[in-house]
Amino acid sequence: MSKTPLSFTIFLSLTLFFFPSITASSITDRYLYGGCTQQKYTPNSPYESNLNSMLTSLVNSATYLSYNNFTMVGGSQQDVIYGLYQCRGDLSMPDCATCVARAVTKAGDMCRGSCGGAVQLDGCYVKYDNATFLGVEDKVVVLKQCGPSVGYNPEGMGSRDAVLGGLAGSGGPFREGGSGVVRGVAQCMGDLSYGECQDCLSEAIAKLKSDCGTADYGDMFLGKCYARYSIGGAHQASKAHGKSGKGGERTFAMVIGILAGVAILIIFLAFLSKICGRQGK
């Protein structure tokens, strides 16, 4: 039976032990969707070692950057692994770090033994795979959520369309706006060019308007971008579209120091695991 990499399991255990806020229920940690590749890796293989390094790098990097991507190379092409994470553009760094750690934990539990996996939480996204996807536009619908219809209200729907139009015409990978009781947010993955971002968001917004119709809230997640709106706070996660608070700052100062220590411990345990594996053969 496939297992989660030993050193990565220990890393997650220590992280969750020192940072109980990571396991606490919060709107940014709300699970939206996820999936795993069918292909499996061989236990104790170079790929498993690279996967362990990848997941650790994603968590470490999220303590100081809201987006990053990595490519872990190996002795052969089959050992190469690609990965990225991205936090919602309005999250503070403490909340970003907490969210990514939570997403990586979810991916590790859900995709044990799989070569690739992806998890979208309300506040962040994590993906890794042995097939390259970095810089590749992806407009496949991965999640659609529409609230109950409130009937056609010219004022409400007009404001919604204006907000979504403003998001489509704005610049930058993260966009938010509002008009009256309508709030909207949209974001592209950081590995897309400006033109690819515009193309992806235009399609997401068009699908959101056509598929959700007169719903009081809607979410449209494509492979590399998303668009969301809420009318009158109807969205069950509408609070997630506001500025994140300072709750995560209580643990953020600890994250930096302890992650550095844990990283050293991971290297030692990975080395020890390989030695024990050879002796057990």
From TrEMBL:
Assigned keywords, A-Z: Cell junction, Cell membrane, Disulfide bond, Host-virus interaction, Membrane, Repeat, Signal, Transmembrane, Transmembrane helix, Transport
Domain of life, source organism: Eukaryota
Annotated transmembrane regions: 252-272
Main location: other
Cleavable signal peptide: 1-24
Its membrane topology: Single-pass type I membrane protein
Pfam families, sorted: Stress-antifung
Subcellular location: Cell junction, Plasmodesma; Cell membrane
Quaternary context: (Microbial infection) Interacts with Grapevine fanleaf virus (GFLV) 2B-MP.
Name recorded for this polypeptide: Gnk2-homologous domain-containing protein
Species for this entry: Arachis hypogaea (Peanut)
